[in-house]
Each structure stands twice: as structure tokens, then as C-alpha cells.
Design brief:
The complex is a heterodimer.
Chain A (H helix, E strand, L loop, with lengths): L2 H29 L9 E5 L3 H11 L12 E6 L15 H13 L4 E4 L7 H7 L2 H7 L3 E2 L8 E5 L8 E5 H5 L2 E5 L1 E5 L3 E3 L1 H4 L7 H6 L2 H8 L8 E10 L12 E10 L2 H12 L8 H7 L12 E5 L1
Parallel strand pairs in A: 1-12, 2-3, 2-7, 3-4, 7-10, 8-10
Antiparallel strand pairs in A: 1-11, 5-6, 8-9, 10-11
Chain B lengths: L4 H22 L7 H8 L3 H11 L6 H12 L2 H5 L2 H16 L13 H18 L2 H6 L1 H30 L19 H17 L9 H10 L4 E5 L9 H5 L5 E2 L4 E2 L9 H5 L5 E5 L14 H19 L30 H7 L5 H5 L5 E3 L12 E3 L12 H5 L10 H4 L2 E8 L5 H4 L6 H5 L5 E5 L5 E5 L9 H5 L8 E11 L19
Antiparallel strand pairs in B: 1-4, 2-3, 5-6, 7-10, 8-9
Helix pairs in contact in B: 4-11, 6-9, 6-10, 7-11, 9-10, 9-14, 10-14
The chains are: A alpha/beta, B mainly alpha.
């Protein structure tokens, strides 16, 4: 950077900062830069999914921290299974709806919702209640059932996964909000933030046959990372995951974890499920690769009980 | 009755019926409820006979109504209710347009020996060997196969093109429908019949119905004593022959003032054609030509057929390249039985009663039902078989057995279907990624709706699948999800007689709702 450019940038940054200060105060200025946000993570307990989000996002500086006016937003819940909301195999529809409402309030131009489902997609979208909830909030619910929607991307630095086909929405939108539901997972042991990315890609079979844990971590290298992760721990499937057999698999935990760091989010989620984090291999791998911080002690966590 | 209204009524009625059948078979978004589909298919003669034979419920005996209708009105069924017949009328019309003037048929002698031998052959073979010959010739099933094999893929291709364009404008009301291609050999019989019936109807009207179709021949016999039919008023007739030229069945011998009622399909074209008002439809009056049709424009016909076949193959597409694990699996899956659809009761019951109309294949939202090539043996060709390499059976779905018009698939309530064991899961450890690659997988276990496939500790932190065949329902989701090639590490072997699986036992976890954050 030339000296002149440096001055120019500093001056304009200063002007922007000043303007922001005069308009919205000190907090908001810092909140616009997520890594410098007040908290690394906000955990909420004791409310309904939508009410917990209202409080949690407020602590992170409001959705405006992540979504700017005129932006296109992708919300990626887990809609993998053709089961009813109370069996908690899919993200809570109330939560999805509330996040969409917040996005529109922040001036989002368009909000999209999709998942590459495991069961028949039409049934999943319907049974999960997410299609209805998302449409009622004004979002566009987009299919992810056909390879034609997916485009090849490169993941430089991936150890097992160097390329993948991701849904076009991920490429076309400005902001990606990851909204997984916390579940036990019989093969990966747990599914939350990182594992939810398997619903963004077309060729999951490749991951399964080429070191699943490494592939999950490798994918997190891809440049289009979630601006925010909202982990739905309202109803939590504690066994027989990720699909569940009956309501006996579900424990009501009435919690929610919000964080920009998906590795940290997964580490906290593991605590919720009471699984040692090193057992969920992709978390330590992602941590070592520098994709996030799984040491919760070193994080500034805001805990709220409603 | 000599009204022009008759023909118009026939055209309007048959158009509505045809559109309904068309929509049912191309409904790739699965919008039409099973009840409506049943209302439509219940009109079909052969499926109704088989269903009645199976269930012995009077309500299913709609074929009796068809026979009564024929007794009263002649072969109106062939013009009003048979989708294959109506489809041929459409083709004949196109054939006429291709020649730039209206089709000239003219009287032809009936192919009595051929016709009745084929009917006899169908009846005898069905009684002795079962349904196989009948299913090849049943007009409804032929129509169903045309639609499923050739037309639906074209419709889906059009949808996908449109969905692609709309997607560019951020509109997702139409979605891309990925197709699962059938095996090429399964197309052989439908393609042969498409060429045969297509050519005959383009050039010779209802010739197929009056030679090959067993239903047409049978109803033709009944209509010989029908109460209403086409009558000649000899005093009015000037022997102009216009009626014969317009007769799709080539059954009006105006020189003898005679209509061959066994071939007449009551299309009423002749009434409209007659300028002397000498022809009428009415109560039977007891009481006769020759013309050659022109050569067909074979190139046009062959060309358009080829185009259609090509298009359907294009949209059914090719098998997608599956990303491969490093090592090929080594142990071949040993299948003793094919998996037949839910509601089949047993392989025997199923193969005896299925006419391969393909309605279930087209209705299956997961496209797991595929026409068999040799899975059921030669006689079961085109009957639907569960193909778990292509897809799996959705846990919450009973649509195939709801729509089956013959009762080959008997209706199951959802709860019963969820416990119907179509086959049993088999695990081949030597093919499994966890053993061969020493990395985590578990795709099978996560797909299993009953946890008949679950994970147990293996080396180190690894988990490996184990199976419990008692609660397995044979849905095939595990087999579909298993990433190994060329052989799967987990597969479903069919039950020759469907069994009832045990209900999965599930206990509370003992984990309590947290009151404090555990971090």
C-alpha cells in the first residue's frame, strides 16, 4: 500500500466511523465488524425458539450486524428428514421464520431457504413445517433436489476434499446464515454447524467414502463461510440420530446458541449433548486447521437465562 | 338419433377423459390425489376384472358395467373411456392432417380368424399361464406404459427447461426434476407397440382395436347383440360412400347397407358425414363397399417416432457419474429374490395380478419403482420392481398401493406399511468403508427409519454398522445411501412373501432437560 492510499483509506474509514458514531453510537460501530463483536458467542436458555433468537441476536448487536440493506440472504436450516417438527430431526420452523423476519427488517432484499434433503424433498419441506413458515415470512423456498442447481467450487488446502458442487444460492447470495438443529448422529456422533454444510453440497457420497470427518472439516475451508450460526437446541434428539425413531429420542432443552464461529458453536453443542468434543473428530480437526476455536474457555460467551 | 350432437358429445367427452388420463400419468409433481386416480382407473376393463377376481368385492366389478354399457350402446367404451382408443383417434386425426385432407378409410373385410384367435389365445394363456400375455395386450396398460416410458419424460424435460429459465429470474415455483433412467431393455416392448399402434392409427384408424386388442374383440362380440347401433335408412341412402370414407373402423359396407357392429366403435363420424340423412344411431333394425387407403408418408411417421423415443431417452438421461471411493468393493451382493412393492403380499400374488400398466411407476414420488427387465423372469418383464441402487422407498408413503388398478398391490394403511417387511437387510463388512478405509461413514445407519441398521464401536473411535433384521422393513434407504462401488456394503434381499416387521423398541434416554449451561 502506498502512503497516499494509506492516508486515503484511513481518512475515509475515520469518516465512516465518525458518521456511524454520530448515527448509532459506539456499540453499533464495533458490531459491524463481527470478529470484534462484544461476544464470541451468545447462549440463551428457557424461552421459545423465536423469543430466544430475539434476545440472542440483540446481544450480538442485532441482525444488522450481519445483514445489510439490499443484501440477499441464504438461510440454511436442516430439513433433511420427512418427519414432523416435534421429532426434532429438522430445524424448528418457528426459529427459521423469526430469523427471516429479522433479515427483512434489516432491509434484506431477498431471503432464500433450502436444504439438500435426505428423504424426498417435497415431503421434507412440507412435514418439517419449514416451507410454510418460511413462505409466510416472505422468504423464497428453493429446491435442492437436482444436480442442476449445484456448481463446482474449489477448496484450496483441502486434504481430502479439494472440490465440491455447492448450491447456486450459496454462490449468488451475499450473506449465509447457518441454522442447524443439534442432534445426536450415529455415525458422525453429533450434527450441528459444520455437519449441516453437507446439505449445501450435491455429492455427499464422496464425503462418506473419503474420510467423512476430514471432508467435513475441509469443507469449512471454503471461502463462503456462515456470517452467523444459530444452533437450534430447543428440542434435541439425543439418540438414534440424525433421523430418530420416535419422540423418546427427543429431550426438550429449550436452548439456542448463536455464534459466528462454527467450530466454537459445535464445541458448545457437544457440551449440550454431553459428548467429549475430541470424540467428534471433525471438531478438533477443524480447530487444528485454524477454522475456528473449540476452546470455549478462551471465548467471551454471554449466557442468558430467560 | 341423427343429431350432429352425438359426434360432438363423443369428442368432448373423450377429450375430458383423455386429458384426465394424460394428467394422471404425467403428474410429476404428484398433485392428483389417489382417490381421483382411482375414480378414473376404475373405468378400465381389464384392471377391473383382475381386481374383482382378487378381492371378490362387488364394488370393484366395474367391468360388468362396461359389459352392460356395450350391451346397450355397442362399443362406446372404446371411443369414450379407453385412453388408448382415444389416443388412436387423436393419431388418426394427425394422420389426416399430415395428408392435408381428411382421412379416407373405406370398407375393409374383417380379419376374423386373426382377431378371434388372438382373443382366444389371450383368454387361454391367461387361464393356464397367468397374466403375462394379457398384460402385454391390455389397452390400459399399453397406454400407461406409453405415457410413463415416452411422454412423461418429455413433459419433465419441458418442465426442466422452463424451470431453468424461471430459475434465472429467481422464480422457483417450478423445480428441476431429476430423472432416473429405466434400463434400456425395458423399453423394447413399449417401443414395439408404440411403433405398431402409432403406425396403424396414423394410417388405418382403429385397425389395431379391431385385430389385436382383446378387449375390443370381446366387446365386439357383446355388441353384436347391442340394443343401440348405427342403422341405414335404405330409402334415403344414395350410396355416395362418404360414410365409409370417414369410418375409422372401416366397417361400413354401404353397398350392402351394412355396418359391422363388432368393429364399430360408435364414433358417430358417419352420421355427420352422411348428407342424405340416411344414417342414424338408434334401436337395432335388422338388416352394406370397397376402397383403398393411400400409401402413408412413412418417413414422417418414422421420423417423428424416432424423435419421440430420442427425447424420452434424453430426459431419462444417463446415470450420473458417482464419485468413487479409492478402492472398489470386492464382495458381490448375493440376492436371492427381487424386492416387490409394498402391498404385493407375495411375489406370487404380485406377478399373477400385475398387468405392468406402470401407474405405480409414474406415481412413485421417489422413482424407486422401475420396470423390471429380468428380475422377475421373462414373464415379469415391465412389472415394477424396487431398485435400491436408484432410489429408496419413502417411509411415509403408500401411493403405489393406493393407485394400483388391478389389486396386484393391495391397499395398506400407513401404519401397516411401516411394518411391512419387503425384504431383509444384509451387511457385507468386507465392502464397508469403515473396514476398508478405516474412516467414519455410517451413511446406512443415518438413513434407516427404524434403526434396523445401527452403529457399534469398532477400532479406535470408529463405529461400524450392525443390522437387526427383525425391525428392518426393507425400504432400501441404507442400500441407496451406501457409497461403495461397484458392490454395496449393505443391501436388501427381497422377501418372496412379505412379512411383518417388529416394531422398533425405543426407551427414554434418561437425559434430563438442562437447567444450567454445561459450558
Amino acid at each position: 500500500m502506498k502512503r497516499r492510499d494509506f492516508f486515503k483509506t484511513s481518512v475515509s474509514a475515520g469518516m465512516a466511523a465518525g458518521a456511524a458514531l454520530s448515527l448509532g453510537g459506539y456499540d453499533k460501530l464495533w458490531a459491524t465488524v463481527p470478529p470484534m463483536a462484544k461476544y464470541d458467542m451468545v447462549a440463551v436458555m428457557g424461552g421459545s425458539p423465536d423469543a430466544m433468537f430475539d434476545i440472542g441476536i440483540q446481544e450480538l448487536g442485532g441482525i444488522g450486524t450481519f445483514v445489510k440493506k439490499g443484501q440477499k440472504v441464504l438461510i440454511k436450516p436442516n430439513i433433511g428428514w420427512d418427519v414432523l417438527p416435534e421429532l426434532a430431526a429438522n430445524t424448528n420452523p418457528l426459529l427459521v421464520k423469526r430469523i427471516i423476519e429479522h433479515c427483512f427488517k434489516a432491509g434484506a432484499r431477498e431471503v432464500y431457504v433450502f436444504d439438500h434433503t435426505c428423504d424426498n424433498w417435497v415431503n421434507c419441506y412440507k412435514s418439517s413445517g419449514i416451507e410454510k413458515a418460511a413462505k409466510s415470512a416472505g422468504a423464497k423456498v428453493v429446491p435442492g433436489n437436482s444436480e442442476s442447481y449445484y456448481h463446482e467450487i474449489q477448496i484450496p488446502g483441502g486434504i481430502k476434499l479439494q472440490s465440491a458442487k455447492v448450491h447456486q444460492l450459496l454462490l449468488e447470495t451475499d450473506v449465509f446464515i447457518n441454522v442447524p438443529v443439534l442432534k445426536n448422529h450415529e455415525s458422525a456422533r453429533m450434527t450441528a454447524c459444520l455437519k449441516n454444510s453437507m446439505g449445501l453440497v450435491w455429492d455427499r457420497g464422496y464425503w462418506h467414502s473419503n474420510d467423512l470427518n476430514q471432508c467435513i472439516a475441509d469443507y469449512a475451508l471454503y471461502e463462503k463461510k456462515p456470517a452467523l450460526n444459530v444452533i437450534d437446541c430447543y428440542n434435541v434428539m439425543v439418540k438414534n440420530g440424525p433421523q430418530g425413531v420416535s419422540k423418546e429420542d427427543v429431550v426438550m432443552m429449550k436452548s439456542q446458541i448463536l455464534t459466528a464461529d462454527w467450530v466454537a458453536g459445535d464445541a458448545a453443542a457437544a457440551k449440550m449433548l454431553n459428548v467429549p468434543v475430541e470424540k467428534i473428530e471433525y471438531i478438533p480437526i477443524a480447530h487444528k486447521m485454524g477454522l475456528g476455536n473449540m476452546n470455549l474457555e478462551s471465548l467471551n460467551i454471554k449466557r442468558i437465562k430467560m | 338419433m341423427r343429431s350432429h350432437f352425438l359426434r360432438r358429445f363423443r369428442i368432448a367427452f373423450s377429450t375430458v377423459v383423455y386429458i384426465c388420463f394424460f394428467l394422471v400419468f404425467v403428474d410429476f409433481r404428484y398433485i392428483i390425489p389417489a382417490d381421483y386416480i382411482n375414480l378414473l382407473t376404475i373405468t378400465q376393463f381389464v384392471p377391473s376384472v383382475i381386481k374383482f377376481y382378487n378381492l371378490e368385492i362387488l364394488l370393484t366389478a366395474t367391468f360388468v358395467l362396461v359389459l352392460l354399457l356395450t350391451l346397450v350402446s355397442g362399443r362406446t367404451y372404446c371411443s369414450f373411456f379407453c385412453p388408448l382408443g382415444i389416443g388412436q383417434d387423436l393419431f388418426s386425426r394427425i394422420g389426416g392432417v399430415l395428408r392435408k385432407k381428411f382421412r379416407r378409410y373405406g370398407y375393409k373385410k374383417p380379419h376374423i380368424i386373426l382377431r378371434y384367435s388372438l382373443l382366444a389365445l389371450t383368454l387361454v394363456s391367461t387361464m393356464i399361464w397367468g397374466i403375462y400375455f394379457l398384460s402385454i395386450l391390455d389397452p390400459f396398460s399399453i397406454y400407461g406404459r406409453f405415457m410413463t416410458f415416452f411422454i412423461k419424460p418429455v413433459v419433465i424435460e419441458l418442465n426442466n427447461m422452463l424451470a431453468g429459465v424461471l430459475g434465472k429470474f429467481d422464480i422457483y415455483t417450478l423445480s428441476n426434476v431429476p430423472e432416473k433412467p429405466f434400463k434400456l431393455a425395458a423399453y423394447s416392448i413399449p417401443a414395439a407397440f408404440f411403433v405398431l399402434i402409432g403406425t396403424l392409427s396414423l394410417t388405418k384408424g382403429r385397425l389395431y382395436c379391431n385385430i389385436v386388442c382383446p378387449v375390443g374383440t370381446l366387446l365386439g362380440l357383446v355388441s353384436k347383440i347391442s340394443i343401440f347401433r348405427i342403422n341405414f335408412n335404405e330409402s334415403e341412402c344414395t350410396r355416395c360412400g362418404r360414410c365409409a370414407l370417414r369410418c375409422k373402423s372401416s366397417c361400413i359396407d354401404f353397398l350392402k347397407y351394412d355396418v359391422d357392429v363388432s368393429r364399430c366403435v360408435d364414433c358417430f363420424n358417419c352420421i355427420n358425414a352422411c348428407q342424405d340423412k340416411a344414417l342414424s344411431y338408434g334401436l337395432v333394425k335388422f338388416k352394406k363397399k370397397e376402397h383403398k387407403t393411400d400409401e402413408s408418408r412413412r418417413k414422417v411417421v418414422a421420423g417423428s417416432l424416432l424423435l419421440l423415443l430420442g427425447l424420452s431417452q434424453k430426459s431419462y438421461g444417463q446415470d450420473k457419474p458417482v464419485p468413487k471411493p479409492k478402492k472398489d468393493s470386492t464382495v458381490k451382493e448375493t440376492r436371492n429374490w427381487p424386492v416387490c412393492p409394498p402391498g404385493s403380499i407375495s411375489l406370487e400374488h404380485f406377478s399373477k395380478n400385475c398387468t405392468a400398466c406402470s401407474l405405480c411407476i409414474t406415481a412413485c414420488p421417489n422413482q424407486v419403482l422401475q420396470p423390471a427387465v429380468k428380475e422377475y423372469g421373462f414373464s415379469g418383464m415391465m412389472q415394477p420392481v424396487m431398485n435400491y441402487h436408484k432410489s429408496f422407498c419413502t417411509y411415509n408413503c403408500t401411493i403405489c398401493n393406493e393407485v394400483c388398478p388391478t389389486g396386484a398391490l393391495s391397499p395398506l394403511v400407513l401404519d401397516a406399511k411401516k411394518l411391512t417387511q419387503l425384504g431383509k437387510v444384509n451387511f457385507i463388512k468386507d465392502n464397508c468403508i469403515v473396514k476398508t478405509e478405516k474412516t467414519a461413514c455410517g451413511a446406512c445407519s443415518e438413513s434407516c427409519p427404524t434403526k434396523a441398521v445401527y452403529m457399534i464401536p469398532y477400532e479406535g473411535n470408529l463405529l461400524i454398522p450392525e443390522v437387526n433384521t427383525d425391525i428392518c422393513i426393507g425400504c432400501g434407504h441404507c442400500e441407496y445411501a451406501c457409497p461403495t462401488v461397484p458392490y454395496k456394503a449393505i443391501f436388501v434381499d427381497g422377501n418372496p412373501v412379505h412379512l411383518t416387521a417388529k416394531k422398533p423398541v425405543n426407551k427414554e434416554s434418561g437425559i434430563k432437560s438442562p437447567v444450567e449451561f454445561p459450558f
